[in-house]
Amino acid sequence: MVLQDQLWLLIIESKRSSFSLAKAIPQALTYMLANPQPEHPAYSLVMNGEDFQFIKLIKQDKPMYALSDRFTLYRRENELYKVLNILKTIGQVLS
């Protein structure tokens, strides 16, 4: 799913939540490199139903990416609300 050509959402469909997000990051970066607006950063979110991780790609001179901390549903504090707040903030920046 691509929103406003800047937020790229990659969902891993997996029957096991143990499926590593690290396996999805190269695929997400490949899609993000196809961003038709290389002058703007592209953002991505990979998830496996239990864990969430954001990716930011800057594609100007030399493509560089950064990974956020990994968020999970199964810690003492449910981090889904943090993920939703990050998505809300990104949505405000992009609009």
Q: What does it look like?
A:
With 95 residues, this protein is α+β, with helices and mostly antiparallel strands. The chain has one domain. Helices cover 25% and strands 28% of the residues. It has helices at 25-33, 80-94, and strands spanning 2-3, 7-11, 42-47, 51-58, 64-67, 71-72. Strands 1, 2, 3, 4, 5 and 6 form a six-stranded mixed β-sheet that branches. It is globular. The two termini are 17 Å apart.
Largest sheet: 6 strands, mixed
Which percent band covers the strand fraction? 25-35%
Silhouette: globular
Q: Mean pLDDT across all residues, rounded? A: 79
pLDDT < 50 stretches = none
Number of domains: 1
Q: How many DSSP H or I helices?
A: 2
* Radius of gyration of CA atoms, rounded to a whole number: 13 Å
Name the helix and strand elements from N-terminus to C-terminus, one letter apiece: EEHEEEEH
Total beta-strand segments: 6
Helix content, binned percent: 25-40%
**Class by alpha and beta content:** alpha+beta
Note the gap between the termini. 17 Å
In brief:
By secondary structure, the chain is α+β, with helices and mostly antiparallel strands.
Detail the topology: elements first, then pairings.
Layout: E1 2-3, E2 7-11, H1 25-33, E3 42-47, E4 51-58, E5 64-67, E6 71-72, H2 80-94
Parallel strand pairs: 2-3
Antiparallel strand pairs: 1-2, 3-4, 4-5, 4-6
